[in-house]
């Protein structure tokens, strides 16, 4: 692994365990955030970028298996280490089938968890060093390369720091280049059909993306507004305008919505 601390998200409803893992993993060079349930986890994933998720199977609002299934269905590739008090082989198999990358039954030795976390991060780093040209689905625009295999955006050789929510929105738009997408559709594509994100969250995330990517966020070249409708990814557009017209290419605007973000 490189010298940059890995950013870990620990999701568990036991306060003492969360605190212990934050101290222990943090004491071994990782940056650790914690959440007590799926709702807190979702809010953190929308705002921040993480390298690995440590996820308890039994949570008060949504079980870990359902979370794994939901995240993978939404295109989330974040490595997931599942924790559970149930150690039966069938539970481990189901967890792995739902999208978990590794499985550790409770009670566990913190040093074993650390070893598994480090091993998963090493595997992720090795995958990330694969030649970019060999990765299917890469999208180039301007001086950027969006690499779905490594789940990152590159500006030349530099990784642009994106939160999970920012990456998900950019990937949803870029994979439908030239096609105007409404906010409801963007929520479904980026975060999953059952996600409770509001349409305003799309506008806020778009603001952040433009500040990171566009030379002039007020007049975006690639992340353009479709007035009264949503947004469109226009990598080949020569115009620097942030307005791509309305959904029907000529209908009226909707001044009441902050679509220009």
From TrEMBL:
GO cellular component, one term: cytosol
GO molecular function: phosphorelay response regulator activity; transcription cis-regulatory region binding
Region Disordered, residue ranges: 242-261
GO biological process: regulation of DNA-templated transcription
Every Response regulatory domain range: 7-121
Residues annotated as transmembrane: none
Biased composition (Low complexity): 242-252
Alphabetical list of Pfam families matching this protein: Response_reg, Trans_reg_C
SMART domains: REC (SM00448), Trans_reg_C (SM00862)
Keyword Phosphoprotein: yes
Protein name: Response regulator
Segments forming domain OmpR/PhoB-type: 136-235
DNA-binding region boundaries: 136-235
Stored PROSITE patterns: OMPR_PHOB (PS51755), RESPONSE_REGULATORY (PS50110)
